[in-house]
Design a protein that fits this description.
By secondary structure, this protein is mainly alpha-helical. It contains 5 helices and 3 strands; from the N terminus they run βααββααα. A 3-stranded antiparallel beta sheet has the order 1-3-2.
Length: 109
């Protein structure tokens, strides 16, 4: 089967997207990226498919999204973290443990 157009190996695709090679292989295995199979071990990814994956899977994450006007962070996670810290602080007060887990403990001799 002749292959026309611009195609990348999974390694080249990973380098182009700035991802790990295993991430691209897993995306191929899951079916998130469609490939042209040359043999049982050789896959080629079309430029258009790579562009689609980049916009769908990478476009909504990261710093650019957080800088966008109107962005509001998820509140569920921060609420969970605040509750966890409150529970941890309560436990420390009840047990008399130091606030910092890495703080040196004075031993009486």
């Amino acid at each position: 089967m002749p292959v026309e157009g611009i195609y990348y190996t999974t390694k080249e695709a990973a380098d182009k997207l700035g991802l790990a090679h295993g991430t691209i292989r897993n995306a191929v295995r899951r079916g998130a990226i469609k490939v042209e199979r040359l043999s049982a071990r050789q896959n080629l990814i079309a430029q258009a498919e790579l562009d689609r994956y980049a916009t769908e899977h990478q476009g909504g994450k990261g710093w650019e999204t957080r800088k966008a006007p109107g962005y509001t962070p998820a509140t569920a996670r921060s609420a969970y973290q605040r509750a966890w810290r409150a529970r941890k602080k309560q436990q420390q007060q009840e047990t008399g443990a130091p606030d910092d887990e890495n703080a040196p403990v004075a031993h009486e001799e």
